[in-house]
Amino acid sequence: MAVELDVFVGNTTIMDEEVYQLWLDGYTVNDAVKVRMEGGVLEEFEASADVLLSDTMDQYRTFQMCERLLHSPAKLANQLLFQIPPHRQAILIERYYAFDDAFVREVLGKKLSKGTKKDLDDISAKTSVTLKSCRRQFDNFKRVFKVVEELKGPLVENIRQHFLLSDKLARDYAAIVFFANNRFETGKRKLQYLTFQDFAFCAGQLINSWTIGAVDNMVEDMDVDLDKEFLQELKELKILITDKDLLDQHKSLVCTALRGKTKAFNEMEARANFKAFAFETFIEPCRSDRWTASDMRLYLTHYTNSAHILDTFKHQVVWDRYMGVIKSCIFKMYHD
Amino acid sequence: MPGKLKAKIVAGRHLPVMDRASDLTDAFVEVKFGNTTFKTDVCPKSLNPQWNSEWFKFEVDDEDLQDEPLQITVLDHDTYSANDAIGKVYIDIDPLLCSEAASVISGWFPIYDTIHGIRGEINVLVKVELFNDLNRFRQSSCGVKFFCTTSIPRCYRAAMVHGFVEELVVNEDPEYQWIDRIRTPRASNEARQRLISLMSGELQRKIGLKVLEMGGNAVVGYLQCFDLEGESGLVVRAIGTACTLDKLSSGSAPNTNTHVHPNTAPASNACNSPSKDGKEPVFGEDLPSFSGPPTPFRALPTSSSSPPPFSPSKPCSRQSSSSDTDLSLTPKTEEPLPVRCRPGIFLCPSSPTLSTDTLSLPGSGSVGCGHGSAPRATTPPPHSSVRSDSALLRKSVSFTEDLLLAASGMGSGGSAGKEAGPLKTLLRQQTQTALEQREFPFFTLTSFPPGFLVHVGGVVSARSVKLLDRIHNPDEPETRDAWWEEIRQEIKSHAKALGCHAVVGYSESTSICEEVCILSASGTAAILNPRYMREGCLDIGSTDHRFEEPSPPSCGFCHIPYDELNMPFPAQLTYCYHCRRQKVPDVLFTTIDMPPEAAVTGKGCLIQARLCRLKKKAQGEVNATAISNLLPFMEYELHTQLMNKLKLRSMNALFGLHIQISVGENMLLGLASATGVYLTALPAPGGIQIAGKTPGDLSNEHHILTIQKRINDTITKNKELYQINPPELTEEVVGSPIPEPRQRSRLFRSHSESSDELSELDLSHGKKDAFVLEIDDTDAVEDIHSLLTDAPPPTGFYSCNTEIMPGIYNWTTGVQMFTSVRVFRLSNANLTNQGLNKIFTDLCENLLKSFYFKLRSMIPCCLCHLNFTVAVPEEELIQVAVTAVAMTFDKDQTQEKPADKPVTKGCSETEEQLQFPLELCADSSSITTQTSSKISGVPESTNVSPRVSSLERSSPLPEGRSRSLRSNRSFGGSSVPVVKMTPLSFLPGTRIIKYLGIINMFFIRETTSLREEGGVSGFLHSFIAEVFAMVRAHVAALGGNAVVSYSMKECVLMENPNKNQAQCLINVSGDAVICVIETDQESMPSTINVVQTCSSGADGAT
């Protein structure tokens, strides 16, 4: 004795947001039923476990059928199979493309390849995000990556238009694409304390200022690849370090400006002579020296401004483009 | 050469990848109508091809236009091998043939493949140019409107209700042709889909012809069904009610007085009687050429048994010979009928009365005409002159009265009583003559214009078991026609026995298992107002008051139509609790919707009786005999269950009663659904009293007491739940009990106006007469337990199977239509009837519980029009399919019944022309040109579709259309128009401004990768979703934004999990409409006057 077939189809597709989330999170039907039972739907609405199971199965089936459409969200709006009110469509898409910070932190900067996909079970174990959900998220990254890879125009806007995502989510995806494309290592131990949002912010900064798109907005990959010319120009900034005079001059200017304003002056002074800012060589020591955030802000501001005072320093524009990003990134990354 | 069909293929989108190498598709389209095919160019390497083809033109007969669908096939071009079909779209162009319906079909259609389902969409434009057809010998019936809605459609007025039309066509089922062995499943499915589409078209055309003959211009309550008989063929049959409808418009509304009132023209009554010569008046007005000498028209054989030759395009279809006007049934009765057994059942108010025919095997009985089978009656009643073949049936469960034979009085409605002045009597007699001239005074309508329904007698039904493999000439429709003829005759005689001259809420159905087929018909015996049968009646308001008695009181329909001295069955009569002048029965069962003017106490609820009966597996006659022997018992038990459940809820009337008996190899399933209410006019039901068989047994006594207590508690609880607090009547004037009903019923009807004499014998009002249930064995205990297990719907939910819930009047706009299917596999063969019953009951109850749970976000809400269909697809499977709509309502005002309520349904129209947008495009001009060719009566000014800006969310047609044409790739936003669907005839909060035509679609889906598609559930889930999508797309393409009166007539699922295969057939139908949100300002001006004029009678109810 068993229910051999059990379907429920509404003219307007019925979707329970709670069940959708469970489905996205990769719960099996039975687990989802358990969670729902614990959630108290039953008491709230005198239903039996059978009813809950039947409902969950129905919803899961619906979501599975929708999944194909969610892969190209634009289709969801003009497909005929499911009648879903527009605001619901938006929720469906947004939720489908949402990801776990814990998961993305693991994948960020890695190549979105088959190899990485094979490691998903490790990531799943590590982050306690179900493998199913990991796969979905990974596939989403990959899908977005593939689509925008070949598109012209601003990255964030492309993602937003093609996947009908909110601005916030589109920016996050832009960051993911940016990192994946540039393979910035984010997995190092010293970087572990940084959240995805920190990186996303930095990526945003980099995209806005350092990519080709920042100067020319009609090139392919414009927001994904860093501006090569700019990188070349950066080399010229080395003059600040290589040129002994300039270095000393700069250093003293910074030190003068900072004198008396902070207790941590001594350390700052020590650090005033560095090459290009790199994470390990700057933030990390600062952290270990327990600079406060305001100290850091102060220091960087003066560091930037002082360079302008240097008469012999000819690369003001590049310097600003460089330091602007560095400054904001460091501010963002400088936390516990 | 009366028509030119034009089609244009615009574009495609979301096509599947057909070429794996390039991940693209080289698509082109074939457009086929009849035997003509056109092709578009190949649009290479695109999944979103733009064809923008020229107009493909087909010059065709309008007969073909009615029968044939336009067939669009999308293919993938392949240079080296055969082109691969992507899928097809069948477009029924019938809506374009009626000037009042759609003018153009334009939109995105899902491309459907019977193996793969929906594969992308195609944008198509279709137009029809119709030329005037003045040929009287024509075979087409273009212009006749069809409605699934079982009431007068909202924006029409019934000028005349002509009556019953039916038709039946038979063909060989392609699935059973020899060629099926060598062709692919896809080819076979497509052949079937196409054939059924053709047959439905043909059926509709023929029914249309009958309607034209009768002088009507529309079919309302059109019910079309398929019988998949298997080897013996595929039957498509339809019934409906022919009407003459006038479109309501500001122009035509006030002219109601111009119609000839029935009283002033009684003579016209006779000549307008159906189908004899009633055609002239209606035709004559618009088409002068029609009003010539009627002889040639008459010369056309009204019995279509010798039809003019068909066009060669469909040689395979055969025509039914049964026309409504054809009384000579000689060809049919000459056929030796293999098995004739016609258990006929009355479901009468009060106590069940059963009559059954015996099974007369060939040779044994006099197999001549339909009436002579040997009576099996145990105690043939002395007065059985009417129906000698009735049988008395007894059962151990006893009611207060013994069961009595039903067929007694000929009742010509003599119980008119006090309110009957001489005028009324005259009218009634006229009606009767008018109705009696009809072969079948049946009406498929379930709700009626005010005043139409005078009295309701009770439910009449008839069933008959037939053997399909005995059909002498299976390719011809005669045998089936004869079968149905027989059943209809029986229904007619049942109605007569109830003193009624008409049957309303009439429907027919079949259940087939292997070679056995159960034919069923049921309806509600009623007395109708004669005015509606005649020309120019049905005027809402004004005329009502000039002649007749002030429009009938809201309780009028409850009054008994039969003679109380000669009741057809034992019933307890009382004086009506509302008007106190007429007699009413203690319980009323009907198949119709509750009349809007009826006064109810509290709310109603869904009441279901469920029953399983095992039977031995058998073949042929033995099987048929076994089934027909079981049928009366099943009917009886279902009826008992219904009665018990009704009492348990403290209600006294059932509406929308639908009893389905489904046959399987080893069991019969019976499901009766109805909506119970407490009619204020009827007496309060007595309780249920439990009686033990063996008094003295202490434990037993105790047991009975506890049960009794539970029952009483349940009744109290239900009263509270359904808010049933009838006003306690202070004094009971009516009192003396009628003498032994048994004797009474044997009296011949004496033509006395008995109720005039106040001191006359009267019935005990029966209030405290408890209904006695006897517990004599475990079965009875089980029965009572099952009685108590029906869980009431959770708080905030109501459910009913009628259009709307009696007692709820303030619907809000939330609407969710759904279809749910469950199949239950019985684990082992060692099941008892008891066990089966429990399983079946649980299955139904759990389904309801699931609905409540799923729709909990809509609370407060009511599940309306819950339509359960049961089937036994295989030996150990039980299938239940449900289609219903959940509608929200405003909780705060549920008690009040707004005065304008019955009116908003009918007739608000004046403001339609207020807003004509400037872009009255080519479409509307083509409408106006078409109006010249239409054949309806009243000249109309509103044929140009009126548009109101406030279309709900979806856009009205012109906008939607132009958008879809111009920007095919509009991303974002909702480019798909919202189409609402409902099984009801209306959408709450909206007003239907236009009917665009009937939707009648048949789909087959098959899979050979069942597991991959998610098992049977996944398979069916996506199929149902696809069917919805295709219905919505067709409606949107017609320019509509809703489907009303939607129903899923058929859902046949066959599976073979071992082979990883499944096949499913679904048939759906409904009316495509444009509706607009009803705002207060809009509805005000037009309704006020009508409220004043026509609903004064109804006011008395509240």
Strand-helix topology:
The complex is a heterodimer of chains A (336) and B (1102).
Chain A: E1 2-10, H1 17-24, H2 29-39, H3 41-44, H4 49-70, H5 73-78, H6 86-97, H7 101-107, H8 114-118, H9 120-127, H10 131-149, H11 155-163, H12 167-182, H13 196-210, H14 228-237, H15 239-242, H16 244-258, H17 265-271, H18 279-288, H19 293-309, H20 316-333
Helix pairs in contact in A: 2-4, 9-10, 11-12, 12-13, 13-20, 16-19, 19-20
Chain B: E1 3-13, E2 27-33, E3 36-39, E4 56-60, H1 62-67, E5 69-76, E6 84-92, E7 105-113, E8 117-130, E9 145-146, E10 156-171, H2 185-214, E11 218-230, E12 233-247, H3 266-271, H4 280-286, H5 295-299, H6 330-333, E13 340-341, E14 344-347, E15 353-354, E16 359-360, H7 422-436, E17 453-467, H8 478-497, E18 502-513, E19 516-528, H9 543-546, E20 574-575, E21 583-584, E22 588-589, E23 600-614, H10 620-648, E24 653-663, E25 667-679, E26 688-692, H11 698-721, H12 741-746, E27 771-775, H13 778-789, E28 797-799, E29 811-825, H14 833-854, E30 861-871, E31 877-889, H15 901-906, H16 922-931, H17 957-966, E32 980-981, E33 990-1007, H18 1015-1037, E34 1042-1056, E35 1061-1077, H19 1080-1094, H20 1096-1099
Parallel strand pairs in B: 9-11, 22-24, 26-27, 28-30, 32-34
Antiparallel strand pairs in B: 1-4, 1-8, 2-3, 2-5, 5-6, 7-8, 10-12, 11-12, 13-16, 14-15, 14-17, 17-19, 18-19, 20-21, 23-25, 24-25, 29-31, 30-31, 33-35, 34-35
Structure explained in plain terms:
- The complex is a heterodimer of chains A (336) and B (1102).
- Chain A is elongated and about 85 Å long.
- Mean pLDDT of chain A is 75; it is low at 262-280.
- With 336 residues, chain A is an all-alpha fold.
- Chain A has 20 helices and one strand.
- In chain A, helix 13 runs antiparallel to helix 20.
- Chain A starts with a strand and ends with a helix.
- Chain A folds into three domains: 17-85, no CATH class; 101-210, no CATH class; 228-334, no CATH class.
- In chain A, 39% of the residues are buried.
- With 1102 residues, chain B is of the alpha+beta class.
- Chain B contains 20 helices and 35 strands.
- In chain B, the strands form ten sheets. Chain B has a five-stranded antiparallel sheet.
- In chain B, a hairpin with a 2-residue loop joins strand 11 (218-230) and strand 12.
- The longest helix of chain B has 30 residues, at 185-214.
- Chain B is globular, with a radius of gyration of 29 Å.
- The chains are: A mainly alpha (336), B alpha+beta (1102).
